[in-house]
Amino acid sequence: MHEQLKLGNQLCFRLYTASRLITQAYRPLLEPLGLTYPQYLVMMVLWEQDNQIVGDICRRLMLDTNTLTPILQRMEREGLVVRTHGITDGRQTLVSLTKKGKHLEEQAKDIPKCMSQNWHGEDMNMAQLTNMVEAIDKLIKELK
Amino acid sequence: MHEQLKLGNQLCFRLYTASRLITQAYRPLLEPLGLTYPQYLVMMVLWEQDNQIVGDICRRLMLDTNTLTPILQRMEREGLVVRTHGITDGRQTLVSLTKKGKHLEEQAKDIPKCMSQNWHGEDMNMAQLTNMVEAIDKLIKELK
DNA sequence: TAACATTATATCGTACACGATATAATCTAT
DNA sequence: ATAGATTATATCGTGTACGATATAATGTTA
Lengths: 144, 144
Hints:
Two copies of one chain form a homodimer. Chain A is mainly alpha-helical and 144 residues long. The first copy, chain A, has helices at residues 11-30, 37-48, 54-61, 65-77, 99-108, 111-116, 126-143, and strands at residues 52-53, 81-85, 93-97. The longest helix of chain A is centred in the N-terminal third of the chain and has 20 residues, at 11-30. Chains A and B meet through helix 1, helix 2, helix 6 and helix 7 of A and helix 1, helix 2, helix 6 and helix 7 of B. The structure holds a DNA duplex (30 and 30 nucleotides).
């Protein structure tokens, strides 16, 4: 047996699993809003700053257009955003919140607090969370 | 603006992104072996212990059968594993490595080392990695 | 200014994820 | 022994991810 291959040694598997479980934990909170987790990420980007072009949202979420375009199309079908062709640059697509999309922010405002309760159990303290966030940021930077 | 919604504050987004980037980093290493990352996880489980039933692999990878069955079917089509019906319990499906599947372990043995070089940059030390793994384990435990 | 490269987005094909449901085998309590 | 519950796996539908390719608009350069 090659010891390095053992699943227990793998940081990657943990990140993969944690990511899946977190998305699952979001589901019951997001379902009432009619959002999936990736759609929620897009909404957060737009709530922070409305009227962004596809490419800027891509860069923010580190996703390519082949992933984001279908998501935006579904969100447009749901009436959360509208996509208009750029005026100065005809290649760009501008994504804007609809009234419905803007109103959703109010309904979403408690989600982060709800989620954070999942990992503020007795054996997970603030320092560890801060360290984890820092470490993941470095990891992401190395991988980018 | 609701401050909690800011993307920068979100641990979840980091985990989601790190997981995607790691899977991407695996791709060039796994492609020569004809494996995807989830398939590689299955192979690691089977290399560690051959002849396991679907349910045990599910529990090990924390995946449900609706995800794992199609993966196993593709792996069977590729000649990496065979699936046979259980003898003692007719509901079970036993998954076994083929000769091809077993031989692949030799080719895969350097992958963990290659991968770990991605996050052993100058500003990421061993202690941080250990802490991160511990913290993610706790997180997974809370979410499970 | 006409060819050519570049850029922004979209489309396509394959492979996950996962909730919901189906199916078939085993177990259990009459 | 048999109806009903449970368990193990499979199937289905929808929504990502992502490499590869297409398309169309903009820049660039001879």
